[in-house]
Design goal:
alpha+beta; five-stranded antiparallel sheet; 14 helices; about 10% strand; globular
Length: about 350
């Protein structure tokens, strides 16, 4: 049966080497892998963007819900389709656009203002409606297709269940080589779009792919929670006194957003402008990691609905791996000598 028509598939339990995973991913990125649209690239990106939202079960496997996958899937395509007008499918003689394009274009036709907004700026009901439509329309083809291309060695799935199940070795491989896989995925995605789009919309196409996951602008809720509820009144890095009465408090991603591509309380600290500027896209040194781990363990135990939601899938061992793998991806260490 063709992969796109599969309704379920079992995760292969055999030991798989890193070389074999590289071979499988490189096949998917190559022209030898059959693709009518960009869904496989979109699914790979959505899984990688969600690595920190997986839940590990008692057998060491990682479960990721379809709702989480296709929320990221929708966000990633939103700007590509509505803002940058990039086609995502080869014409098959019957239709010019993929299903996700038709869903997003239909949503924008209902309200012309939507085209100018980031997806996260929509109302909760509008977002949920679009994500639900995308999930129903797209999961039935792409989940089985990518499963088949990866020979069942990346994840197992059942379309009647709530999500996919990533193998432990597959999960660790994607986490370890996250940056490298993202770059290869972007490149293959861009090459595919170059074949089906006009030159005028292909300007800086790799930049457009990287910007498809928008960075949240308003982090004030995290500033208030850390400062008011957890009394983080000093710069995490240099110890300087901070005050909410001025704009001298920056909300910093401990592990840079460019690696994590997510906003969660367990990865935020408050810093002074000087330290935040100096740290930029660097990884804090080990002494800060140790402080951060202790802080997160304390926060994880706090009885508070917002904190519990933010820490739902937090795991200290995973956080340490993030810190290590981010450096393997090329990020330099940040050391504040005045701490």
């Amino acid at each position: 049966m063709p992969g796109w028509n599969l309704k379920n598939g079992e995760l292969q339990k055999c030991q798989i080497s890193e070389d074999e995973y590289w071979s499988l991913f490189n096949f998917v990125f190559s022209d030898a892998c059959m693709k009518r649209n960009t869904y496989k690239f979109g699914l790979i990106k959505s899984i990688m963007d969600n690595l920190f939202n997986c839940t590990q079960d008692d057998y060491g496997n990682y479960r990721l819900s379809y709702s989480a996958i296709f929320e990221k899937f929708t966000i990633n395509y939103w700007n590509l389709v509505l803002k940058y007008h990039l086609k995502q499918m080869r014409s098959d003689g019957r239709t010019e656009v993929s299903k996700i394009e038709s869903i997003l274009l239909a949503a924008s036709e209902e309200n012309d203002l939507i085209k100018t907004l980031d997806f996260n700026s929509l109302s909760n009901s509008d977002r949920s409606k679009v994500v639900r439509q995308v999930s129903i329309a797209c999961r039935k083809n792409v989940i089985g297709a990518l499963y088949n291309d990866m020979e069942g060695k990346l994840y197992g799935f059942d379309l009647k269940e709530k999500g996919i199940m990533l193998g432990e070795r597959a999960y660790d491989f994607m986490l370890k080589y996250k940056t490298e896989l993202e770059k290869l995925n972007y490149y293959a995605w861009a090459k595919f779009m170059e074949k089906i789009n006009e030159d005028d919309v292909l300007v800086k196409v790799l930049d457009k792919l990287e910007l498809s996951t928008p960075k949240r602008d308003d982090l004030s809720v995290y500033r208030e929670v850390l400062y008011e509820e957890f009394e983080a009144c000093n710069c995490f890095y240099c110890g300087k006194k901070l005050s909410l009465s001025n704009r001298g408090i920056h909300v910093d991603h401990f592990i840079p957003w460019s690696y994590v591509k997510d906003d969660k309380l367990w990865n935020f600290v408050l810093s002074c402008p000087k330290c935040n500027e100096r740290k930029n896209n660097k990884i804090p040194s080990k002494k800060y990691l140790e402080i951060m781990l202790k802080r997160n363990e304390y926060m994880k135990g706090v009885v508070d609905e917002f904190v519990e939601i933010e820490f739902k899938n937090y795991d200290s061992s995973q956080f340490m791996r993030l810190w290590k793998y981010a450096q393997l991806s090329g990020m330099k260490q940040f050391q504040q000598e005045f701490f």
